[in-house]
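task queued by scheduler; priority normal; single chain, no ligands, no partner chains; default sampling; output format set to structure tokens
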Amino acid sequence: MALKSQFTLLMFSTLLVVVTFVLTTDVYAMYDGGKSVLVGIWAPILDPNGPNVLPVAQFAINEHNKEAKVNLKFIKVISGQTMDVAGFIFDLVIAAIDGAVIGHYKATVWTKPWKDYMNLTSFRKL
């Protein structure tokens, strides 16, 4: 009887680990154009102007405008990378217009999509 209980416990534990892995892998894939993202490792953004990246870049510009009391206008995301660490860190190079001059800016944004949370952690002109 004890052997059957141990086997059942082992099977349940294995199933729990597999289900957890599958569910979290699907969530990670949502935020990089359908490609899986490894936890704690920088991964290049394959579509820098994709639907998961643009709101983050626009948030970075809007937040910087509020903090620095400037009026940058978003143009596009040039490149970027993401890391999954208690949410997602986006490290983006963004093109924006300052008056009549186009400039490139480096923005880092920490997101927690399940909480609808974004935080601009750094922003600088390149």
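post-processing summary
- The two ends are 68 Å apart (CA to CA).
- Helices lie at 2-30, 54-68.
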